[in-house]
Design brief:
One of its GO terms (cellular component) is cytoplasm. GO terms for molecular function: L-tryptophan decarboxylase activity; pyridoxal phosphate binding. It holds the Pfam family Pyridoxal_deC. Its cofactor is pyridoxal 5'-phosphate. Belongs to the group II decarboxylase family. α5 packs antiparallel against α15 and α15 packs across α18. Helices cover 40% and strands 11% of the residues. It has a seven-stranded mixed sheet with strand order 1-7-6-5-4-2-3, with helices on both faces. It has 18 helices and eleven strands. The chain is an alpha/beta fold.
């Protein structure tokens, strides 16, 4: 068969037929020009973010009506694309301190473009919902640098700096929270850390590691006998991880919590449940404890729980998804008492350590449990460093093969702000939460319904202020009214049958004036609803 000849005129040279100063896929000068545009765009966004409704006010399916049915065949200018991202106006004349005319505003031509109307603004100083997902200049620039370099550090040889920087910053962070040396690469005990995408990934990896470790001992035919434990306040991502791991859902023991112990996981209830399972022929495998539950930030009694599980060889994972960040401050490190007896520990640096989504930090005492369960060794990835076991190959510490250079942004954050400043940022949010807590406590119509451990306050309009009205229904309608106006955004929890409003403070732009404004909004809506009812 003859060799096919290609007409040089038909070869693709990486350019597009469009009238721009440069139209190559990756042209340094065009990247510089467009990059400046995007940085200016984001800087303007942060400067004006408080002027947007915090919670998106669009209806489901709004974007489908605005976008074409197919992608464009011809290139479009970045200027045109950017126009479709933002609103026609930044609403410069409107501050959402009152909600009377919000619906009229949202129906006006001021909000007509594609993307921004459909955004809930998580970096807004008036965002108090869920747990935070914080950004910072260093975090954003770290993401930009990581995306620009675009290395795929699945193994050490694929990009040695990516692996070694990750190992280093995980040790840095472990020391910052006073994590026992058994979890450190540098601790001399065989432990180590890895940056995962999310908490669900960390939970799933550790469940799979525990499963494989146990099945090696008892035989693979016993997989249907494996049991996992958590409380009814454990994050719902744990249930998802259990499902994916192959553990039967009927073997997932959700232990009820009570108000008597502030809805923490009760060691006595755990012990009784484990004993019942053993008598019934089941094999206790895994227990998830929580430092700072999603609903109320309660802290499970880790030390007591670990004293129980150690007698049964149960893998203990500690989920500190949000509160773990606070543990860089010495005054919060007592919440980690007992961590030395757990097997793994994780928290999200993108929650409250200003490292941008996604950045879940997971430490394990025995990395071989992870690598034995998750490693693959194809011929195409063999190399001397791996074969001689001189290095860490992070592909064997996670679910996927490919991985982003997440360590770069964490490194930039830790170096750009330093431990002292990061502690002060967190402390300032805690002080703001105390201030809000005082505002709530001083108004006899409201009550605090859960102890404040960190920077989140759980409150509601009290039954005493409502008389015969349905308390849960009133607070639910109050929250809906507040969120619909766009001034602030909060979410709720339902714990022990009590509907409560969660006020979580950690957005990087939030100041005391935003706390005071939020309280004013809450009071105004409460006044209006009490008058109506």
């Amino acid at each position: 068969m003859g060799t096919m000849k290609i007409n040089p005129e038909h070869e693709f040279d990486g350019q597009f037929s469009i009238n721009t100063s440069s139209s190559r896929l990756l042209d340094p000068e065009e990247f510089r020009r467009q990059g400046h545009m995007m940085v200016d765009f984001l800087a303007d966004y942060f400067q004006n973010i408080k002027k947007y409704p915090v919670l998106s006010q669009v209806e489901p399916g709004y974007l489908k009506k605005l976008l074409p049915d197919s992608a464009p065949y011809k290139p479009e200018l970045i200027e045109k694309i950017q126009e479709d991202v933002e609103s026609r106006s930044i609403l410069t004349s409107i501050h959402f301190t009152r909600c009377t005319h919000v619906r009229k505003i949202l129906d006006s031509p001021l909000v007509e473009r594609d993307i921004f109307p459909g955004l809930t603004h998580w970096q807004s100083p008036n965002f108090f919902a869920y747990f935070p997902c914080t950004s910072s200049t260093a975090g954003i620039l770290g993401e930009m640098l990581s995306a620009g370099l675009n290395v795929v550090g699945f193994s050490w040889i694929a990009s040695p700096a990516a692996t070694e920087l990750e190992s280093t910053v995980m040790d840095w962070l472990g020391k910052m929270i006073n994590l026992p040396k058994t979890y450190h690469f540098s601790g001399g005990h065989g432990g180590g850390g890895v940056i995962q995408g999310t908490t669900c990934e960390a939970m799933l990896c550790t469940i799979v590691a525990a499963r494989e470790q146990m099945l090696e001992k008892v035989g693979r035919e016993k997989v249907d006998k494996l049991v996992v434990y958590a409380s009814d306040q454990t994050h719902f991502s744990f249930e998802k991880a259990v499902k994916i791991s192959g553990i039967k859902l009927e073997n997932f023991r959700v232990i009820p919590t009570t108000k008597d112990i502030e809805f923490a996981l009760d060691p006595k209830s755990l012990s009784r449940t484990i004993e019942q399972d053993i008598k019934s022929g089941f094999i206790p495998l895994f227990m998830c404890a929580t430092i700072g539950t999603t609903s109320t930030t309660v802290v499970d009694p880790l030390k007591l729980l670990c004293e129980i599980t150690k007698d049964y060889g149960i893998w203990v994972h500690v989920d500190a998804v949000y509160a773990g960040d606070a543990c860089i401050c010495p005054e919060f490190q007592h919440f980690l008492d007992g961590i030395e007896n757990a097997n793994s520990f994780s928290f999200n640096a993108h929650k409250w350590l200003f490292s941008n989504l996604d950045c879940c930090c997971l430490w394990v005492k025995d990395p071989s449990a992870l690598t034995n369960a998750l490693s693959t060794r194809p011929e195409c990835l063999r190399n001397k460093a791996t074969d001689t076991e001189q290095v860490v190959d992070y592909k064997d510490w996670q679910l996927s093969l490919s991985r982003r250079f997440r360590a770069l942004k964490l490194w930039l954050v830790l170096r750009s702000y330093g431990i002292d400043n990061l502690r002060n940022f967190i402390r300032s949010h805690v002080k703001m939460a105390k201030h809000f807590e005082q505002l709530v406590s001083m108004d006899e119509r409201f009550e605090i319904v859960a102890p404040r451990n960190f920077s989140m306050v759980c409150f509601r309009v009290s039954p005493l202020a409502l008389g015969s009205k349905q308390v849960n229904k009133f607070n639910m309608e109050l929250l809906e009214s507040i969120n619909s106006c766009g001034n602030i955004h909060m979410t709720h929890a339902l714990v022990g049958g009590v509907y409560m409003i969660r006020f979580a403070i950690a957005a990087p732009l939030t100041k005391y004036k935003h706390i005071d404004m939020a309280w004013e909004v809450i009071c105004n809506h409460t006044n209006a609803m009490l008058d109506i009812n």
